[in-house]
Amino acid sequence: MPLINETVWFHARSGTLILTDVCQWWRGDALPWKAALWARLTHVRGRMGVPLHVRAMVRDAEAAAASARQILNWPIRRISLAHDALVDVQAQEQLALALGPLLRRG
After folding, report:
1. How far apart are CA 11 and CA 6, in angstroms?
2. In the prediction, which pLDDT does 2 show?
């Protein structure tokens, strides 16, 4: 993604994956209306996903899919996302669903 430099971190001992923008999940009832609208428009309001604008920045679909497959091979037990979301129930399965669009493109 040439416009952003996305980095993911995996802490093996705790099984925690930390993501910044590649996956997002904007939750909560108290979101400002502009943030809630943005989250809905980019498909990350009701679930964890790769936002539409991030998908649009992918220039090398094969490389993105390879990175997604590599991440999914890690023994993930919880995910900490930017924008205040923690996924600690079925984290691996939810991540696989979220990364699905990148995997299908590659």
Report:
1. 17
2. 67
